[in-house]
């Protein structure tokens, strides 16, 4: 079993400052519940929402909350999952990249502010880089760091 190392507060602050210097807004919260509450507060009622595959979103309870339909947003994945025609489903997937809010995570964040993002299907890359109006990444402290530990995270 892999041991999880969380970034120390000093490293978190330095990393957050470096990411902000690259033009990305950063907020640090203390708990999974705080992260979920903050996401809920960021997206207005009626907004279209889509997500990339993200264990982090699942772990904070966002995925379950979105599936529950107990929210005021339009979850674009509902239509994708319900669609039986593969051609129409593909079109809905493309449209979901234009969501008002696209949520996911990154694989790692260097103390220099560099982000590591990979995708088995590629579905997150377009929305993250260009097409979604707003992108929200939820990133655990175990994904942040530098030096020798950073190299191991990428291996």
Topology:
Elements: H1 9-21, H2 32-42, E1 48-51, H3 55-59, H4 62-68, E2 74-75, H5 76-82, H6 86-96, E3 101-104, E4 108-110, E5 115-116, H7 125-131, E6 134-137, E7 144-145, H8 147-154
Parallel strand pairs: 1-2, 1-3, 3-6, 4-7
Antiparallel strand pairs: 4-5
Helix pairs in contact: 5-6
How would you describe this protein?
The protein has a single domain, classed as Rossmann fold. Helix content is 45%, strand content 14%. Strands 2-1-3-6 form a 4-stranded parallel sheet. Strands 5-4-7 form a 3-stranded mixed sheet, with helices on both faces.
The CATH topology: Rossmann fold
The CATH class turns out to be Alpha Beta
| Helix/strand structural class | alpha/beta
By DSSP (H or I, 4+ residues per run), the number of helices equals 8
What CATH architecture do you see? 3-Layer(aba) Sandwich
Percent of residues in β-strands? 5-15%
Count the E strands: 7
Shape: globular
What count of domains describes the coordinates? Answer: 1
Helical proportion, percent range: 40-55%
Order of helices and strands: HHEHHEHHEEEHEEH
**Overall average pLDDT:** 88
- Outline the biggest β-sheet: 4 strands, parallel
Poorly predicted residue ranges = none
Strand order of the largest sheet: 2-1-3-6
């Amino acid at each position: 079993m892999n041991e999880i190392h969380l970034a120390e507060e000093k490293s978190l602050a330095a990393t957050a400052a470096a990411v902000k210097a690259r033009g990305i807004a950063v907020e640090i919260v203390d708990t999974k519940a705080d992260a979920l509450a903050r996401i809920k507060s960021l997206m207005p009622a009626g907004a279209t929402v889509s997500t990339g595959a993200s264990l982090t979103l699942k772990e904070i309870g966002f995925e379950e909350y979105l599936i529950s339909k107990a929210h005021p947003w339009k979850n674009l994945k509902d239509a994708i999952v319900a669609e039986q025609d593969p051609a129409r489903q593909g079109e809905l997937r493309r449209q979901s990249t234009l969501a008002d809010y696209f949520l996911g995570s990154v694989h790692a964040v260097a103390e220099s502010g560099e982000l590591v993002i990979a995708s088995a299907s590629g579905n997150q890359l377009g929305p993250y880089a260009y097409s979604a109006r707003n992108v929200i990444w939820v990133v655990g402290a175990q994904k942040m760091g530098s030096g020798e530990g950073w190299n191991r995270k990428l291996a």
